[in-house]
Amino acid sequence: MPSARNQANPAGRRKAGSPPARSGFGAAPANPRALLAEAEQLASAHALLGAQERLDAIESALGRTPRFRLIQGYVCFHLGQLDWALALLQPLAERQDAIGRVACTFLADACHHAGDRPAMAQLLSSQPGWAATPEGRLFNARLCAATDPEASVAALLPLAEGRFPGQLRRMAGFDAVKLLDQLGRHRQAWSLARQLQCATAPPFDLQGFLAPLQEQLEALRCADLQPLLPPAPPAAAAGEPGVAFVLGLPRSGTTLLEQMLDGHPSVCGIGEFQGLTLLSRELGEQGCGAEQLTCLSGQRRSALGRIYRQPAQRLADGQAAWIVDKSLISWMWLPAIAQVLPGSVVLHLRRDPRDLALSLSMAAIRPTGVLGWVSSLDQIRAVLSIHLQLTSLAIERLQLNHRVIRYESLVAQPEASLRGCLDAMHLPMHEGVLHPERNPRIPITLSHSQAREPIYSTSVGRWRQYDWLFGDEWEQLASLACS
User: Fold this and answer.
1) CA 96, 100, 106: angle at the middle one, nearest 5?
2) End-to-end CA distance of the chain
3) Which of 116, 222, 360, 362 could join 111 via S-S bond, C-beta 3.0 to 4.6 A?
């Protein structure tokens, strides 16, 4: 069976690899199978904390059923609890039914993220029925990508065709895009990427997405900002870790920076944690905007902070002095972070907008929800522009404890960049942060393979191989990013 490495630290310290935490869902539910169906829907939508909450509630009733264990294995994997995911999924992969085939796909994905090629090869050879499915063919193509990229492209391109489900098409197609780029076939890579985006990305209401961000930007520009300034941080509860947010758009280097910081013995990375989604939902239900936040009592702000902190601390190592969260929405919620999580550190990561836009356009990011804008360069440019304006102004006017890190500096001079981050967290320098490839933790993001390698700078300036895509408007945006 697959032996993808788990996340146990060689020194015995666990890094976000504990068994699924009990979150509580009230009394025993009257209809556990309905909750299991809800958990499956939430997991499919990547609402992992909501799915875990429902699984916790029905474990005593359904915990031994194959469907429960399949969904729990999926949730554990995407929460970064790889060892537990493997324990749940490996027995299911032996089944010769639909659940077994899905379990094989989840296991292969775990092997892929762990870079465990022998385990993936063993899975493909031991489960020939699954290996013949479109999903099995995808992972077989991935297996040969390192040794025969041309053959891998030839195997991937048919899977990117229209008769297959959209997400499978995107995974296979963008794997082919990456290989074509590496082979120097840049125009073919870009043509395939555009074809995939046009065929599989749903419509996106860009203006509806930008409108509340523009309103926040205007509010931050107001002359009287004193009420919005964060309150003095409360005395930390015994054993309560600090929180640092890696602030950046996808593909800007956030996975690398988190993986590097996680190499410090006092730091635990919790990935793209969804705690801010929980917090934003609670604030939305209360009709609580930035101005209303300032009117809340200290007790109420602390209660809101616990909505974030409690599930974060269940995911983290209990010995860590700091939690590092690379949530994809933190840049949109800085006023709330300032009010309900005072004392947080913001590590603002910036990358050349042209390199960032190219990477976003040519990656298998699901273009849905808060990432629905990644399917076209025009939309990416609009979001990049407001991201740079909003984050810079919010950090300045909310007087947040922050550091700005340029991706290009991070990969060229990692020690200087990491010293700045650790200084903001009042932590000493540690050799472990300079070697992300030695970190046994496995990040569950599209950048998982890069974060397992020694730091490299070959992606800097990659946009020049696609220079026909970027006009003067991108030069202006690059200047803004450097300011």
Assistant:
1) 150
2) 52
3) 116
